Structure formats: structure tokens, C-alpha cells
């Protein structure tokens, strides 16, 4: 009776899939729907109160490998090889450099598989893309390696225990995240397996105090799962209805470019990208629903006492569609990947961390040239957006009407900038990507260059350092004033 409403969302997605999906997409959706049913069964019949963590690890891993074999055949052996190589590095490498070696080996193996798949097998085709799950496994492997290193060296990590091989495989290849992720913390996953993920939140409400009204041993995820399944069905229906009507490739058609006014080309590109995004909304929201159905993803309570199930959510759709800055869009798109990039690169790179993070993101995504054009353009867009926000935004903060005008202008600018930046990501090859930018006369590239040169802005690290120095100076002045006052009191 706990999940008697789940079949409604399941049947809704199944209906949309069978009647609208091309055959090559059915396997993935069918496996994810099977994983959804297994997640409900896993929570009810393999609950931590009924079975041991060992059994839960074994079942989660075996189900994960079954789904991988069904979708990718023998290619799924790469998941085992990648996990085995990285685990060997973690076991035999010294603690001081273990995370670096693990990062190089894991990312290198991923890139080699991407090169083989793209340039040997099926360039431009997404069918049977076994490197997709490997991308998520790469995130998990490197995150865990950095957590162990940081925890052992007393830096900032909290994971201090080396996992067993079974725990490691379960974390990397469990059925809930083997096909589409999302990435999660190793400690959060272990808390879910052991049944301790709800304990820190039992006695907290909006005021952080115990309240019998909000206190419950295990919150229900039913409403969140149903809501996310409905979102999946709507997203899938929108994508499959519009993707053929508004293809991005049409924006570089010679007849379209020559006969269409520029402002209509801009509108078409925005609508084409708007029609493309629901595909990602469907995949990531369904993956989130699967984890929630299994009992994973609890993140405390809202102010009204309702449970939050967004611990490993990968996107916030409304914040994406109404983003008023480049950063706001990126912060709400593929959230877990953004957090991974921040942990393993941005916070650790000493020289130009922003450029290094964008470059790592391009390498992680794959070897298509369009990916690199997108992320290189993203560097220029981010720098220009920071300069605009730092220098122009303060002039619009005087009144509510000015703020609304600024928000509308920045929303329109953000949507155009995102569409312009991401176009090569969809077109993939160098020729079509450069043809697209030529049709736009590289206008946003030039605009970003002018903005960065005309409106310089200090890096965030320099600003943070200056703030810290200012706080130290204020503290020193405060201490000096206290000492002078004490001396005067003593003299009196």
C-alpha cells in the first residue's frame, strides 16, 4: 500500500514511450522503468530493518550489472575494468598521490573509450553509448579518491575508510544509478545502504528543534516520486513532439540563413534549444525518481515539515528556464556534475581555475570538437557575465521597477548567450559549428571580448582574499583600539 500511486506515473511514462519513442530509445527507458519497479521492491523487501547491508550491496550490484548487460552487451565490461583499475590504484598507490593517480587513470580510460567509440564505431550516433554510464562512474571514482585522501590528511574530507571491493562496486554500479546517475557522495550512499540516512534529520524542523508533529522515523517519498514521474512524462512528450519540428541543424541551413532576418534566426535558435532541453529533464528527473523510490535522496525537512528529496537532484527546471545570469543557469543545470567539477578542479587548481574547470568539463564530456568549442566559448561568456554583473547591476538596484527591468534584460541575454554557446555542443563537428558562428558573425564572441576589456573585474579569489585582509585589518584596528582603551583606563 506504500506505493499504490506509483503505477500511475509508471503507466504514464510507458504510454508516452511506446507510442512516441523511436525503437533505439525504448531499451533505455524500459530499463529505467524496470529499475523504478526494482527500487520500490528494494525499499519494501530489502529494507535495512529486514536485511543486512551485505545483501543490499549484493542485490544492488547484480541488478546494476543486469541492466548494463541488457543495454550495452559486452561493452558493459568496461564498467568493471574501469572500476577494477581505479580500485587497484587506490589499494597500491601511496596515500599522498593516490587521488592524482586515480584521477589520471580513470579519466584516461574514459577518454580512450570515447575516442574508440566516436572515431572507430559510430561518429555522431548516440545509440548504445556505453561511455555515458562511464562518465558517471568516473565522477564517483574520483570523488571517492579525493574524499579518502582529504579525510586521511585531515584537510576537508569526511570519508576516512577504504571501502571493500563489494562496497566499491555497489557504489559505482548499483541499479539506481548505473544508466543515468546521478553522482552522489560515498558517505551518503553508505548511509542509505545501512539505513542511517534519516537519523540526522529526525528531530529537526524549521527551527532546528524537536517537534513531535514533524518527527518521523522514515519519511515518505511517494509524493515526490509521483511528481517527478509526471514531470518525466510531460518532458518526454514535449521533446518527442518538438525535436523534429525545431532541429538545431536547421539554423545553419543556407536557405534559412539567407532568407531569414537575423532577429528571427535568434528566436528560432532559442526555440530549438528550448525544445531540446526536455530530453535532459526526462533522463535526470527519472533517475532522481528511481533513487527516491528506493529511499535514497532524503535531505531534511522544509519549513512546513514536509520532507525534502533533493539530495542528489540534478536540475531545477524553473530556475533554468528563468535564469537571469549565465552562472544561475549553470548552477541549476547538471548540478551534481557542477559540484564534482568544483570539488576536484575549481577548488584545487591554483592557476586560472575557471578555465581549467571548463577544460576538464570538455574532456569529460567526450572528444567531439563541438564540446571544446562550447566550453571555450563558455569561458568568455562567464568572464563577460561577471564583468556585467559587477559593474552594471548596482545601477539597477535602486527600485523594484529597475530590478524587474534588469531581470527581464538579463533573462533575454542569458537565454541567447546559452543558445549561442551550446550550439556547437549539439552540432558536434567543427565544420557545422564554425558555419553557425560565421552566420552570426561571431557577434557574441566579439561582444564578450569588448565587455571584458571595457569592464574589468577582479577574480573571485582575489576578492575573497581582499575581504579576508579587510577583516584582519578591522580586527587589528579593533584590538588596537581595545588596547588603547585599556591603557587609558589603567592610567586613570
From TrEMBL:
Question: Which parts of this chain are annotated as the region Disordered?
Answer: 466-492
Where is this protein localized, as stated in its record? Endoplasmic reticulum membrane
Compositional bias, Basic and acidic residues, is annotated for 466-480
**Which GO terms fall under biological process for this protein?**
lipid modification
- Keywords (A to Z) from UniProt: Acyltransferase, Endoplasmic reticulum, Membrane, Transferase, Transmembrane, Transmembrane helix
Name the GO cellular-component terms: endoplasmic reticulum membrane
Q: Which residues form a coiled coil?
A: none
Q: How does it sit in the membrane?
A: Multi-pass membrane protein
Entry GO MF terms = acyltransferase activity
Bilayer-crossing residues are 28-46, 58-81, 101-120, 370-388, 408-427, 439-457
Q: Which PANTHER family match?
A: LYSOPHOSPHOLIPID ACYLTRANSFERASE 2, PORCUPINE
This protein's name = Membrane bound O-acyltransferase domain containing 2
